[in-house]
Specification:
Layout (H helix, E strand, L loop, with lengths): L2 H6 L9 H10 L4 H12 L3 H5 L1 H15 L5 H4 L2 H22 L3 H24 L6 H18 L7 H12 L1 E2 L5 E2 L3 H12 L3 H10 L4 H17 L6 H14 L4 H7 L2 H15 L10 H14 L4 H10 L1 H9 L4 H7 L13 H9 L5 H16 L4 H6 L3 H25 L6 E3 L8 E3 L4 E2 L7 E2 L2 H15 L4 H8 L4 H13 L1 H10 L7 E6 L5 E7 L11 H11 L3 H6 L1 E7 L2 E7 L23 E3 L12 H19 L8 H17 L9
Parallel strand pairs: 7-9, 8-11
Antiparallel strand pairs: 1-2, 3-4, 5-6, 7-8, 9-10
Length: 673
């Protein structure tokens, strides 16, 4: 090379000789173009720069020389001044981990330069010294952080680096209006904090730099929307990064988890991801952000927030999860039919997410909303069966369980609308002991367990009830007053009668007398599980919360007649237990008629604590209505082509016909027409 004019001729060269590299290194202290050519040569794999440790060390000394320049505001506003800094930072990256990690001497060079690197990185983003090099700056950041990790992992424990990573995620809006940012450094540091169990410190650092969980999550959601709607075609790669970013924020702190698992984020995710799966043709790589989102849905649903689950279903989550599960490739089906492939990080599959949603079906609002949404899928002419058929065995089983549970809850809701299986209670005043509709009784405001038919009855009973009432605590009282528990309580009361023959056998095995049996139904697992225990166990306040003790004591002071008519029912909902005294009526489960020969076995969604599936041992109203609705749906589909079992008119007609049969006591067959 002859002079700098010759050096400039090598701007686009793929290689530099040793002499050319040496001349560029000398010139690059003052000449910006020489520095650019040198760094480009390193980037393009110049053999001399890649193999000569001496040349690479000379390059390091050059970059360190520029990075030692002071962060002077006036000079930083000069174009060339900042270009020297940006390309020196890029040069450090090009030297790479192999160079700095070669031995202790090389590692020491990086450690010597690191404070200056960090100071310049902070100054550039905080004071807007980009000089239109935002693209290069944010592209360098993940590589520089990775280099720092290779050389000295302890850097990731420093507060200054965490604050810089947060700032890089908040980003910068360039003069071109583009949103420049990078998420990788913050994700890496979050993983480090989690690994060291130092998430509390992470939250403090967020606050110290003027940001918070809401800001971090809001940025991700805004960028996710832009990647989806901001251009004619969706930026699926960016969507994948952002969905993963949201998932990675969950374990950082309880506040970030609350934000990511919020309804507003869930609503956005369902809407955006549905746009992907509803396209006519969806490339496999476009499904990556959809499947990555299963981590967020799964974690959020496991928090047992009913409002969140309702939000997802109302936004069309059943449509989304069904379509997502159906993207199991044809070639995968034969080899992985019996074991669904975990296609996303942390092994979260669509069937696992759907199974978490099923645990909300005991709640009336979720069951009814799911009923409506399943009906909507059919009304939109969506080929539900075809989508299910293309999914894994695990998902098919979960979807079948969902449909069965929703249908049963829909039938029960329709039965309750016609006053079937009314909720009963007994006046706690022993001199009255009146059994009547629960709506006609008033609860004791102190415990919500004792019921009274009048104020005078409550006053008369106060001396006996007072000491029991005082044991109730606020937490137990709030759970007992929760209106969302009313529907599952009524359903569980009915099923106690339907499965009484099996529960009696369980009690006999445990040597529990019939008069002492209490029933626990666990809605926190699926299939839902019935178990039995001796109610005297609930009197032990060292093992059970005050609410259980109050219920057990109120139960024990009933008359023998009323105790024979009642049972303690404990609902286990989302890791909480809520006890009630209920009064089941065996008339609710009397046989409607003789079942027909082609009767399909009852699809049970309940098991006993021994693992055995539970079903009613005769043809009661619930079983008759479900069977009738299914038959009429099959016939209607053959004749009309647009009838499904979730049609409200079909279910209500079946309810009406069965209830008429019960009232008339005819005991004959029911027409399927």
């Amino acid at each position: 090379m002859e002079g700098l004019s010759s050096a400039r001729a090598f701007l686009l060269s793929t290689s530099l000789s040793s002499s050319e590299a040496n001349e560029l290194i000398r010139a690059s202290r003052e000449d910006l173009l020489s520095l650019v050519i040198l760094v480009n040569g390193m980037e393009r794999g110049s053999l001399a720069l890649a193999t000569s440790d001496g040349l690479r060390t000379d390059c390091f000394d050059l970059f360190h020389y520029h990075l030692q320049k002071p962060v002077d505001h006036d000079r930083c506003m000069e174009y060339d001044w900042m270009k020297f800094i940006i390309f020196s930072l890029n040069g450090i990256i090009r030297l790479g981990g192999n160079y700095f990690n070669k031995d202790a001497t090389h590692k020491q060079r990086f450690m010597l330069c690191w404070p200056r690197i960090l100071e310049w990185l902070e100054a550039i983003i905080e004071r807007n010294y980009f000089q239109e090099d935002e693209e290069m700056y944010f592209r360098m950041m993940p590589v520089l952080f990775k280099l720092a990790w290779i050389v000295r992992q302890e850097y990731f424990d420093e507060e200054e680096l965490f604050l810089l990573a947060v700032r890089l995620w908040i980003g910068h809006q360039g003069v071109d209006g583009k949103d420049y940012y990078t998420s990788h450094p913050l994700v890496d540091l979050i993983h480090r904090k989690i690994e060291l169990s130092d998430t509390i410190k992470a939250e403090e650092l967020l606050q110290s730099c003027g940001t918070c969980a809401e800001t971090l999550v809001a940025k991700a959601v805004t960028r996710l929307k832009h990647a989806t709607y901001g251009s004619p075609s969706m930026d699926v790669t960016q969507m994948r990064f952002l969905v993963n970013m949201l998932a990675d924020l969950i374990p950082l702190s309880e506040r970030t988890a609350l934000e990511v698992c919020s309804r507003k984020v869930g609503r956005v995710l369902v809407r955006i991801l549905t746009r992907i799966v509803e396209r006519v043709e969806v490339p496999e790589e476009d499904m990556i952000p959809v499947r990555s989102a299963q981590r967020i849905f799964h974690t959020s649903l496991r928090r047992r927030d009913l409002k969140y689950a309702l939000c997802l279903v109302r936004e069309g989550f059943l449509n989304l999860i069904l379509r997502t599960a159906s993207f199991l490739q044809v070639e995968d089906i034969s080899s992985e039919r019996d074991s669904e492939r975990a296609r996303v990080a942390h092994k979260i599959s669509e069937s696992m997410v759907l199974s978490e949603l099923i645990l909300f079906l005991p709640y009336r609002d979720l069951a009814i909303t799911s009923w409506v949404m399943l009906l909507n899928l059919r009304e939109k002419q969506m080929a539900v069966e075809e989508f299910v058929e293309r999914s894994s065995n695990e998902f098919q089983n979960a979807w079948k369980a969902l449909e069965g549970a929703v249908l049963e809850q829909a039938v029960l809701q329709s039965l309750y609308e016609v006053k079937y299986a009314a909720d009963h209670g007994v006046c706690s005043n022993s001199s009255r002991g009146l059994l009547t509709n629960r709506r006609h009784l008033k609860k004791c405001s102190g415990c919500s367990v004792a019921l009274y038919c009048s104020t005078s009855c409550q006053q008369e009973d106060w001396q006996q009830h007072r000491e029991i009432c005082k044991k109730m605590d606020g937490k137990s009282l709030r759970e007992m007053l929760n209106k969302n528990h009313r529907f599952p309580r009524r359903v569980a009361t009915l099923h106690f009668l339907r499965f009484e023959h099996h529960l009696t056998r369980l009690a006999l095995r445990k040597n529990i007398p019939r008069c002492n049996v209490a029933v626990r139904i666990d809605y926190s697992r699926f299939p839902f599980e019935f178990g039995v225990l001796d109610y005297h166990e609930l009197l032990d306040d060292t093992k059970h919360p005050p609410g259980h003790v109050v219920v057990a004591q109120e139960f024990s002071r009933q008359s023998d007649t009323n105790r024979d008519k009642s049972v303690i029912l404990i609902l286990r909902m989302a890791e909480k237990e809520v006890p009630y005294i209920v009064y089941p009526d065996r008339a609710w489960v009397k046989e409607v008629c003789k079942p027909e020969d082609d009767l399909v076995d009852e699809e049970t969604i309940y098991v006993g604590e021994d693992g055995e599936g539970l079903s009613c041992n005769h043809f009661d109203a619930l079983r008759a209505i479900i069977n009738l609705a299914r038959k009429r749906a099959v016939i209607g589909k053959l004749l009309l082509g647009d009838i499904c079992v979730y049609e409200p008119r079909l279910i209500r007609k079946a309810v009406s016909d069965v209830m008429k049969l019960l009232r008339d006591g005819e005991g004959g067959a029911i027409s399927t027409e």
